[in-house]
Design a protein that fits this description.
The termini are far apart. The protein is mainly beta. The protein contains no helices and 11 strands. The radius of gyration is 13 Å and the shape is globular. Strands 2, 4, 5, 6, 9, 10 and 11 form a 7-stranded mixed sheet that branches.
Length: 124
Amino acid sequence: QVQLVESGGGLVQAGGSLRVSCAASGRAFSSYTMGWFRQAPEKAREFVAALSRSGGSTSYTDSVKGRFTISRDNAKNTVYLQMNSLKPEDTAIYYCAARTDPFTSRLARHYDYWGQGTQVTVSS
């Protein structure tokens, strides 16, 4: 019902910034709670950030608080993750996800739809 396509990943030096985007199609975007997860090689998928349907409620994992900002533009059916002050440990494949429940969640199993991921590499 919903296709999610990430873009904007790439290579950046430590301390730099990058914004990844996730474009949604196939279903009313404003009906979904959105989230970002990441997965580094040989590590489990990790919650990064989530955003409510209206954009009024956010949730972040502790390691990115103050550096990352999740936002959405419902008119464009797009969710963003602005990443500032990047660190090498932020290197991972970043995935966007959508869930029909109106509340944010940190659990991957609560999300119904997933994008293909975009690689973010932070060099030192």
